[in-house]
Amino acid sequence: MEWVVEARSHRVICLVLGIWILNGFDLAFTVLSHDQGLLHEENPLARHMLAYGTASIVLYKIGLVLIGSYPLLRFRTARITEMGAFVILIAYGLLGIHWAQCYDLYTFTALHNVELARTHALSSFVPQ
């Protein structure tokens, strides 16, 4: 069982890399959704940054993840750090699922509105 403890730091590094990747997806979807007018950002600081362009929100997000990654990497041999990194990764994974559901719903409603518009437009040509 000693190898499990020795491999912990490698697992934490992998978990932190996963957190960075999922944060990148979250950032991309946040910017994309904001640009498409689908998002009302609830975080007032992020909302302010989104109003002034993409660069500020990118730097903000990178800074936050960098600051949050430091203690995880610094104390990567501790079991609590591994569990914490795993919980954070799961949270961002659930956020990714939420983004997927939002875009599925948006796609469904966008297609439904097109079909509804076609049906409504065609009904105006039918003599009554």
Describe this structure in words.
The chain has 128 residues and is mostly helical. It has one domain (2-95). It contains five helices and no strands. It has helices spanning 2-6, 8-35, 44-51, 54-74, 79-123.
Listing every helix as H and every strand as E from the N terminus to the C terminus, the arrangement reads HHHHH
The fraction of residues in strands falls at under 5%
General form: elongated
List unreliable stretches of 5+ residues. none
Topology:
Layout: H1 2-6, H2 8-35, H3 44-51, H4 54-74, H5 79-123
Summarize the structure.
With 128 residues, the chain is mainly alpha-helical.
Task: Using brief descriptors, characterize the structure shown.
128 residues; mainly alpha; elongated
